[in-house]
Known about the structure:
Elements: E1 5-11, E2 20-24, E3 27-33, E4 39-43, E5 57-59, E6 62-64, E7 71-72, E8 78-80, E9 98-99, E10 101-104, E11 107-112, H1 149-157, H2 162-165, H3 189-200
Amino acid sequence: MIINNWYVAAYADDVADTPVPVRMLGTDLVLFRNGAGEVACLSNVCCHRGGSLAQGAMCEGCLTCPYHGWHYDASGRVIKIPALGENIRIPKRARVDSYPVREQNGHIWVFLGDLPEAERPALPDLLPEYGDRETWRTMHFVKDWPINWMRLSENFADTFHIPFVHAFGKHLSDGISFGRVEKTSRAPKRYRASVRARKKHKPTPR
């Protein structure tokens, strides 16, 4: 995986009134919404005794640890320690890592890396139609695959193997067309050049 990049951590609808655990790039994270309904992403390990914050609860817009009730705000800072009472000075080191979060097109994106905000790449906008709920209808599902993510992406892009490999595609004809590919102005120049190069290429006879 690529560090210093945006990744989809969850569907926006899945993060509501309770914390949601997420594991990304070998890091345990927790997603939750603060009092204003904004999504936050923190390390899932409490800085006190290492409890899982995702097993905690929401209280006054903060995420509370299930072990001793420490209150974390959206920035990862501890703002309340119940065992010490009110009006106490909480050490600055009482905090956990927080991660930049964006909510777009029904997804929650988390930036994993250390680049300052001005240097971070923009969110991918490959399918602007995704956010057009009046004209388009979308479907999604979640499934764990016991394979490398690169092989899975390659497989999804290769739709022409369906009638040869999958049982649900056996009834399809060998010459089936999966729809005409329309070239639009949104296609990057590098992609258009790649398409032209593939069309001109002729396999070497064996």
